[in-house]
Amino acid sequence: MKKRAKWSGILLSTVLVGSLLLSACGSQESAPAAGGQASGDGGKKDFTYAMSGVYKPFSFKENGQLTGFDVEIGQALAERMGMNAVPITNPFETIIPGLDAKKYDAVIGSLTVTPERQKAVLFTNPYYRSGSQIFVQEGNTSIKSKEDLKGKKIGVVKASNYLDWAKKLTDEDKITQYDSDITALLDLPTGRLDAVITDQVVGLRFIKEGGGKVIDVGEPLSFDEQAIAVRLGDQEAVERINKALDEIVKDGTYEKISQKWFGRNILQKQ
Questions:
Q1: How confident is the model at residue 9 (pLDDT cuts 50, 70, 90)?
Q2: What is the phi/psi pair of residue 218, to 5°?
Q3: In terms of Cα–Cα distance, which of 94, 9, 20, 58 is closest to 200?
Q4: Which of 56, 220, 225, 57 minimizes the C-alpha distance to 135?
Q5: How far is it, in rounded angstroms, from Cα 202 to Cα 73?
Q6: 210 or 124: whose pLDDT is higher?
Q7: What does the alpha-carbon distance between residue 3 and residue 14 come to, in Å, rounded to a whole number?
Q8: How far apart are CA 17 and CA 1, in angstroms?
Q9: pLDDT at 245 > cutoff 50
Q10: Which residues lie below 8 Å from residue 126, measured CB to CB, with a gap of 6+?
């Protein structure tokens, strides 16, 4: 990328390339390179952490500002680590490749711990627990459990563990993949979908907020642990984040954030 030229030309090229790289990361709130760069906040190093930004109530935009449970957990962890919190949004299906490419230090984006993902990233201790749940339109009497999903149209988020469930329960040509769980749930009353598989907590909050005439059916398909992801080999980051997580749990900060968003402690075992 570097060419011999006048210093002014080099500087201009560097600025332009940097701008292009930042715009390619997705809808980023801020996008310094990963690796603990010093910021303007009293010389603190940045803790850059990614999420989709379209997974309410974990991460979403409200009045133009990124907010949600994952955002606030990242802020609390950064504070305990003596770092400056820098949340970044990236499409969920590219969030692990973005981590591997060092676009951010960690993913605090409701990643379910699975054997396949453990080959790609290092996980911290769980930072919340939930389950995979089936949701249907209110009044739907044909779907009462997972056994009723064969041949049915199911909506799920791209590259999620819910997609894996859908592939087990219906035909692949009956699956519609979305960027957002909320968009999928909103499609239920339209008739484009028969069911949505998503996180139990997300769906129940959607119902509570009056998002649509939707109900949960059957038992949860699984009880899952969500953890923070860092790059393979970065055991030091795992230990540092685990220590900070333990501290915010013990001093009540985690409880306060969880109660704010869910009315209960979502780290406690089901």
A1: very low
A2: 70, 180
A3: 58
A4: 220
A5: 17
A6: 124
A7: 11
A8: 9
A9: yes
A10: 113, 225, 226, 227, 267
- For residue 15, pLDDT over 50 is answered with no
Whether a cis peptide bond, with omega within 30° of 0, leads into 57 is yes
Q: Which residue has the tokens 């985690």?
A: 254
Q: Closest by alpha carbon to 132, among 146, 151, 153, 117?
A: 146
Here the tokens at position 178 are 């979305």
Position 101, amino acid: A
Q: Which pair of structure tokens corresponds to residue 243?
A: 């220590």
**pLDDT tens figures, 106-147:** 999 999 999 999 999 999 999 999 889 999 999 999 999 999
Higher pLDDT, 193 or 201: 193
> What is the C-alpha to C-alpha distance for residues 246 and 131, in angstroms, rounded to an integer?
23
**50 sits in which H/E element:** strand 46-51
Q: Which residue is listed with tokens 């749940």?
A: 133
- Measuring CA to CA, which residue among 138, 63, 109 is closest to residue 202? 109
CA atoms of 142 and 104, how far apart (whole Å): 44
Look up the pTM and report it. Answer: 0.71
Q: In the prediction, which pLDDT does 41 show?
A: 56
For 160, the 3-state DSSP assignment is coil
Identify whether the C-beta of residue 252 lies closer than 8 Å to the C-beta of residue 130. Answer: no
Report how far apart, in Å, the C-alpha atoms of 162 and of each of 22, 175, 195, 197 are: 30, 11, 12, 6
Crossing angle for the helix pair 69-80 and 235-250, to the nearest 10 degrees: 100
